[in-house]
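INTERNAL AUDIT FORM
Audit reference: QA-55
Scope: verify that the stored structure record matches its stored sequence.
Auditor: D.O.
Record contents follow.
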Amino acid sequence: MRIFIKPILFFIVLFAAVNVLIVVLYKDKKDNSHNIELNRVKQMINEYEKEKGVAAEDLSALVLFSKESSGETEEFEYVLKLSTSDKDDITGIINDKNVDSDISEWYYLTDKKLYRVDYERAKDSSLMKDRSRTFIIINGILLLAMIICISMIIYYQRKIITPFTKLASLPEEIAKGNLTKEIPESEEKYFGKFTWGMNMLREQLEDTKTKNLQLERDKKVLLMSLSHDIKTPLSTISLYSKAISKGLYKGDKVKTSADSIQEKVFEIEDYMKRIVNASNEDIIEFSVDNREAYIKDIVDSIDNYYRDKMKLRSVDFTIGSYNNKLIKVDPDRLVEVIQNIIENALKYGDGRRISMDINEEDGKRIVFSIKNTGCTLEKRELANIFESFYRGTNTGKQEGSGLGLYICRRLMHLMDGEIYADIISEDGEDIMNVMLELNM
């Protein structure tokens, strides 16, 4: 709705300005239609006296004269009465004021008589009609322009701005390494080539990430293998060196050699420890920005991303009711964790039903529970699914690095949370239930 506020305010100001301008333009204008009739009476008096040679006695005489001259009866809308007086006696006709304040007097002096015309002033009715007509036309045009403008805003909002907003977070997600967030599938024509290119870029980056992780895995295996291979000869060298140092061999040279061997053993053992430590270090570095965030903001991000996607795949995706509490997390990272779990549910479940429930425990903890039907993982494997490079027996030919849930666990620990999974039975079928526990 915010996008409509400025255009609506603009048109409100424009409506007000135009209407004020119309009022100002028509304010000083008066309807002088009665003056036209007065001039007509004046002309008829002159013609009457010229032709008849005498003064017109009253208004009916002028009307009759007009009919005789032109064949048409003169009709007056504002002129009410015509009176005459001699030039020598004008006091009476002038002092005879009308009681009705709406009637005015107009005097006309000729060679023969002084004429007095009683008339009504025009009440600006035609002027009001013109002003009303102007109001209707101008305001109608402005209203039509506003409707067209708002319609265009709605169109571009739906066809361009909203789809682009969905794409706006993709570069940031890619920069964070969250490559599971693909561009929402859409039929919009404006971003077809762009979405195709971005999805291609995302897939290439994901493929590169997978290859790098595989290289890291091979490196880790190699380091562990080397440490194991070095350990056996080290033990043998250590035994020989101890025997020589205890004098089992004669001669100072032998003892000196034995001491040197022992020294090298310590150096090799130290090197081996460094190799082992390096092999046990995390192969991926994570950074989180823990802060207070509302549950609704996180749920809306998930719902907006998966609503259309689930419809296209005919998956029954539901989000249960919840209280909009504040929790201390990195909201972007939590969304990433939930997306990883839902992607696993899509990949390894049967695609019938996925649900997310949010519950409060003891007023201190919030638990996100993500369930999916079609679980084929064995319960004995639950203890291992959060280990790096571990892939369950249910993965089959599905591609993967075995790092998704490991990354989820690392992120949850960095957010002072916990992740765990269970296999439950509902309506006679196995349901995978992954739970995220967080502090409020």
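Auditor finding: record pair retrieved intact. The mean pLDDT is 78.
Action required: none
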